[in-house]
Write a sequence for this structure.
């Protein structure tokens, strides 16, 4: 067996730097406040409240995603999975975009599931399309969007754009070598013998034991992904405590800047996709529909916490693409809509 | 050793959630409607923590696996994962208050536009039970401050002031939360009360008074002419929910 690859973003120097930056930001919040107020810092208090609120809101979804991942590992063999993967790359990307209808997960839960599917040999294109689309293309989010906006251009615009952008980006990654995309520890082993051994081993565990096994594998995933979620929640809370929202909102007047502003807001707020449509309602009066749509399409694909979680699956350069490609695609399409479609 | 730590942290996280659920402070963080999700998460975390006990006997061959998970936690990783529990225990739970307003949009535009869906249910509420959000929604439906003149109100909120408020006025404010405190949007009504200077910023108060047409920053708005303002405790539900 190959030696354990050096895992852990958290052992690399870059990780240390990211952590230091986050700690420095947190410290800054406290210090700034102590200078101003001279007490334990109402700003620090605000930071902690927002941080915990994002964490508490996200933790059930992350846990659910991790447990699904554990169940997949124990109960679904690689062979079973492989039978459902279309051979044609474009078809694979499209199916990936619709996979969320079977795995109803939001953007916190989707990353551990995608990660597990990659380990089981899912094509890169399908996984990326799934990861980007599932937070919108799933029954729960469709229902909450319907509840907030009813049947109209916002609802079907959200579904169509999310599906198209996600599948398109997924398809693009079909042309890349998996070794360039995934972190080394994420590559499905090509050593079939080894894999066979492993699943055989799972089959050995019986009944209740098998279930506990699935749960504990889910637990490992929870820890692997949880640190990114927590770092992301801290960053989002720090940005919310430090950057005045009026500053962001004041930018949003023009046909392109209003859209860009709403996208930045979605990125910074990092709200779960299952509820973001209710949040978007609050902006309906002050922003054009295309900007609301951009918020609802971009936010579930990419936000602070999910892009940090991407780091647990993909190489750093790829994470950058995974932020920029949805950003540019959403921006271009919604600006076009804003200029050419009357709502 | 790693599994031991994981069990401890999962258990601690589950118990931490349970404690916030039991003493009601969970509502300082999330919208009431997601309460049940946190209950499920607390149970799930403890179950997953327990599951490590049962896996221990199978563990000897794990290191062979491609090394994706089962990763040992570095101290930094451990600290990071434990940080919600540590911060939650070190800093006493407190809902967002006046301090959080300074960083949010408190222009009147946002005060009145905060998520205002159809108000059918609100209109049927007894008048003394209507909260700040209900009154603002009602005002938005008419957009005529005079229409609400003379209405008696009883409002609970915290005191907010900045340089735009005169000596004898303040704003009785609440945060509206759709999902969690991260999306909190401040709303409020301007209160005229001669003894305003005696109130501390961020103090929770109950305001009893009547609405009268008024102006604030050049906008026509209903203002509250207070008969009494009494300090109160933080309510069990510090935030208001738009749906």
């Amino acid at each position: 067996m190959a030696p354990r690859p050096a895992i852990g973003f958290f052992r690399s120097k870059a990780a240390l730097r990211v952590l230091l930056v986050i700690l420095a930001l947190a410290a800054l919040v406290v210090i700034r406040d102590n200078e101003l107020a001279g007490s334990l810092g109402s700003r620090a208090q605000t930071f902690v409240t927002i941080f915990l609120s994002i964490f508490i809101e996200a933790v059930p979804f992350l846990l659910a995603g991790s447990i699904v991942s554990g169940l997949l590992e124990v109960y679904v063999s690689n062979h079973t999975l492989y039978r459902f993967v279309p051979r044609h790359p474009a078809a694979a990307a499209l199916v990936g975009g619709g996979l969320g209808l079977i795995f109803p997960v939001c953007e916190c839960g989707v990353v551990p599931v995608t990660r597990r599917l990659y380990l089981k040999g899912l094509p890169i294109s399908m996984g990326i399309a799934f990861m980007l689309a599932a937070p919108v293309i799933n029954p729960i989010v469709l229902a909450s969007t319907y509840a907030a906006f009813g049947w109209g251009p916002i609802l079907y615009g959200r579904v169509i754009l999310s599906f198209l952008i996600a599948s398109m980006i997924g398809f693009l990654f079909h042309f890349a070598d998996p070794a360039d995309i995934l972190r080394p520890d994420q590559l499905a082993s090509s050593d079939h013998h080894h894999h066979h051994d492993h699943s055989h081993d799972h089959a050995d565990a019986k009944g209740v034991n098998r279930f506990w096994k699935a749960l504990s594998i889910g637990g490992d995933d929870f820890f692997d992904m949880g640190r990114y979620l927590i770092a992301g929640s801290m960053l989002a809370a720090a940005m919310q405590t430090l950057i005045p929202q009026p500053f962001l909102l004041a930018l949003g007047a023009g046909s392109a800047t209003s859209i860009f502003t709403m996208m930045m807001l979605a990125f910074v707020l990092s709200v779960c996709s299952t509820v973001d449509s209710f949040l978007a309602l609050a902006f309906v009066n002050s922003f054009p529909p295309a900007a609301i749509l951009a918020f609802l399409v971009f936010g579930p694909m990419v936000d602070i916490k999910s892009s940090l979680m991407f780091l647990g699956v993909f190489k750093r350069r790829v994470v950058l693409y995974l932020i920029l490609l949805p950003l540019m695609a959403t921006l271009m399409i919604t600006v076009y809509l804003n200029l050419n479609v009357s709502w | 050793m790693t599994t031991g730590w994981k069990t401890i942290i999962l258990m601690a996280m589950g118990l931490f959630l349970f404690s916030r659920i039991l003493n009601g402070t969970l509502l300082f963080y999330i919208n009431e409607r997601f309460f049940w999700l946190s209950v499920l998460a607390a149970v799930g975390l403890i179950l997953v923590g327990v599951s490590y006990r049962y896996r221990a006997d199978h563990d000897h061959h794990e290191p062979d696996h491609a090394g994706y998970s089962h990763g040992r936690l570095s101290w930094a990783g451990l600290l990071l994962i434990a940080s919600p529990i540590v911060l939650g225990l070190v800093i006493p739970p407190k809902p967002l208050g006046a301090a959080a307003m300074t960083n949010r949009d408190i222009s009147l535009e946002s005060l009145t536009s905060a998520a205002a869906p159809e108000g059918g249910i609100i209109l049927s509420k007894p008048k003394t039970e209507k909260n700040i959000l209900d009154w603002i929604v009602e005002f938005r439906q008419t957009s005529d401050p005079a229409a609400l003149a003379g209405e008696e109100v009883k409002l609970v909120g915290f005191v907010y002031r900045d340089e735009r408020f005169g000596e004898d006025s303040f704003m009785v404010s609440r945060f509206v939360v759709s999902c969690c405190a991260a999306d909190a949007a401040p709303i409020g009504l301007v209160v005229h009360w001669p003894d305003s200077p005696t109130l501390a910023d961020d103090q929770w108060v109950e305001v009893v008074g009547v609405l009268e047409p008024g102006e604030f920053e050049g906008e026509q708005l209903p203002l509250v002419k207070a008969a009494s303002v009494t300090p109160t405790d933080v309510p069990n539900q510090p935030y208001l929910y738009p749906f």
About this structure: Chain B has two domains: 2-90, 98-240. Chain B touches chain A through 79 residues (CB under 8 Å). The beta strands of chain B are 152-160, 169-176, 185-192, 204-216, 219-231, 239-240.
